[in-house]
TrEMBL record:
Assigned protein family: Belongs to the taxilin family.
Name assigned to this protein: Taxilin gamma
Signal peptide: none
Lineage: Eukaryota, Metazoa, Chordata, Craniata, Vertebrata
Any one Gene Ontology BP term: regulation of cell cycle
Pfam families per the UniProt record, alphabetical: Taxilin (PF09728)
Organism annotation: Balaenoptera musculus (Blue whale)
InterPro entries listed in its UniProt record: Taxilin_fam
């Protein structure tokens, strides 16, 4: 059983003993072949086996070497079981990662589709906003033109009213001046009329005085006024 375990490790029973040097009188070509064989074995077994062989060569008896190999085999078996457990754990993680990857790819596809729809809606909204902006600008220009026309018409009407007011002011000033002149003329006429009346009364009075009939007439006038 122990020998079968040794062969499972890929180690030949001949490797347990340290190779001895060439015997006296042996052919030198045999030593070269042995060295080449050792190099081939080292390249095949690898560094781990070489290190194991070096460790075994430090032991003195085959029993110690066999015990060391059994211990190494038990360690390797335990390590192999641990590796299998880790492999199962990693396989589960890999399956979970693959599942998450598929889910993420699905979500990514949905996100791309949603982004495409949003971009299409944004382009449509931009076109709609551009159309509204152009319509608003056109309405603003038309409203500005109407405001300019209304302002011009109002200014024209205001200028006409201002001109008419100025004409009325001139006419009123002229009428006022004419009224003043007429008032002065009327005043002069009244003064002239009063002066003529005074002259006329004075003439009558003088005539009466001259004719000596003034006293009886004056007495008669006073008596008449009393009654």
């Amino acid at each position: 059983v122990e020998e079968s375990r040794i062969y499972r490790l890929g180690v030949n029973a001949d490797m347990l003993e340290e190779p001895s040097g060439p015997e006296a009188g042996a052919d030198p070509s045999d030593g070269q072949q042995d060295s080449e064989c050792r190099r081939n074995k080292e390249s095949i077994l690898g560094k781990e086996v070489v290190l194991l062989m070096q460790a075994l060569n430090t032991l003195s008896t085959p029993e110690e070497k066999l015990a060391a190999l059994c211990k190494k085999y038990a360690d390797l078996l335990e390590e192999f079981r641990n590796v299998q457990k880790q492999v199962k754990i990693l396989q589960k993680k890999q399956a979970q990662i693959v599942k998450e990857k598929v889910q993420l790819q699905s979500e990514h596809s949905k996100a791309i589709l949603a982004r495409s729809k949003l971009e299409s809606l944004c382009r449509e909204l931009q076109r709609h906003n551009k159309t509204l902006k152009e319509e608003n600008m056109q309405q603003a220009r038309e409203e500005e033109e109407r405001c300019k026309e209304a302002t011009a018409h109002f200014q024209f009407t205001l200028n006409e009213i201002q001109a008419q007011l100025e004409q009325h002011d001139v006419h009123n000033a002229k009428l006022h001046q004419e009224n003043i002149e007429l008032g002065e003329k009327l005043k002069k006429l009244i003064e002239q009329y009063a002066l003529r009346e005074e002259v006329k009364v004075f003439s009558v009075f003088r005539h009466l005085v001259i004719s000596k009939n003034f006293v009886p007439l004056l007495t008669n006038f006073i008596v008449t006024r009393q009654f």
